[in-house]
Amino acid sequence: MTLAAAATTAAQATTTAAHATTSAAESHGFLSPTGVEIAFLLVGLVTFAAAIVTVTTRQLVHAALWLVVTLGGLAVEYLLLTAEFIAWVQVLIYVGSVVVLLLFGLMLTRAPIGRSPDADSGNRWAALTVALAAAAALVWVVVDAFRTTWIDLDGPAAGSTEATGASLFQNWVLPFEALSVLLLAALVGAIVLSRKAKADAATAPESAPAEGTPAGRSEKEGTR
Amino acid sequence: MNDALDVTLRLLIVFGVFLTFPLIIGQTEHKVMAHMQGRLGPMYAGGFHGWAQLIADGVKFAQKEDIVPAGADRRIFQLAPAVALLPYLLVLLAIPIGPDEGAVGQVIDAGVFFVLAVMGVGVLGSLMAGWASANKFSLLGGLRTAAQLLAYELPMLLTAASVAMAAGTVSLPGILDAFEWWWLPWQIVGAIVFFVAGLAELQRPPFDMPVADSEIIFGAYTEYTGLRFALFLLAEYAGIVVLCGLTTVLFLGGWHGPWGADGLGWVWTLLKTAVLAFLVIWLRVTYPRLREDQLQKLAWTLLVPLSLAQIALTGIVKVVIN
Q1: Which residues pair with A150 in a beta bridge?
Q2: pTM of the predicted model, to two decimals?
Q3: Does residue A206 lie within any of the structural domains?
């Protein structure tokens, strides 16, 4: 579900960028950066550092909180690229929901204060390889797709809600709908899993309640 | 220069509102609750009907020692109140109280998304506090907070989306520009769902399971004292201001009223917000606390279907009108 949402965001970001990159590159010098470009670079560095701390820290909850910084930094980057709508959706979905879900899971299972010595994985080299390969692929695709196009930051906001919505539902409807089918599949999968677990746990004669999402936990005395 | 002055002035005004309105609501709560229960409430501080009670409370909080438990995660424990409070300040910037440009802190293109996104961040403060306190009751409170947010965020978003569909825009002033009086009956279900879900997100009674004092002392805030505890309380009352302001703007037509729409629009906004705030206090005095499973059941089996039905209704009416 998280992956699908990430894919949605990425797709949205790409469409916005594609929509926005109309102005030519000639008016921009490489060595005379504007204020926005400097800010973009600095925020990018902070985001990158926070991401590295997220995967290297030995304290589980700290990792989740550094993830907040990383995702928030990405939102700021979207804002700097005038993709306002994407930025707020990023905050809403990731900081507001995904990280809360993550923290909920951590607190529910185990969240010791201080270092957890077993938080390290033996697969770290494999993980690093996969991460580098994924990053290289993404950077390659993005660089190849946009090359020397620049976003005109002085004109009307190219990533406003209206522009994003228009490009999403005119040019990119099919990928969007395909992603929603993916989300539906994840939802159905979650329901199936929770129903099966319940049937295994107690072979009660009554049929399980219809909802299998987090509400499924409230199976006892259900007075509304 | 003029622009900088303008921005500073707006920020100062919003900050002033942020500091005073929650206190006014807190004082009203003291008095309204007292009179509903046949008491008088604060009568001494400041002389006239105890108007300075909350200022006295503030002085008391400032004098207390700031204690961090030995087993706590120091930095996160100390950071949590700020994370809980600041989002409401940011949201307040985006709420328009009058029709003209000067009556909103900052016009934001995707205003509805902005306010809901930033409000959701505030809950992280409670989670951080609950975890970092190194206290079982705090951790339970944090867990309940997270479960409650996950359950009630969805109906809130869906009903806000319904209003955005009706208006054809996600900008808060844009929604109010498009408002007609018959939106009230049209969106009434959405309004109720939004308000109830907002109450749950603020952990106000009857949705105060995360801070249920008879079970888990004060939930995530159990270990806090002094100013940091006061900041959490301030966040709760600032949350009431924000929720009532948002419900007013999204569902009750903000500055629109039977008369005096030009010039006096902001009076309507404030009046509606105040009535809603009174309702929040009234609900606290009236209803007993919901149990945790009742909370979840209410959200998933009543509020989510209702908000989906509201979206369907909005869509149908919208298509018929066009």
Answers
A1: A23
A2: 0.80
A3: no
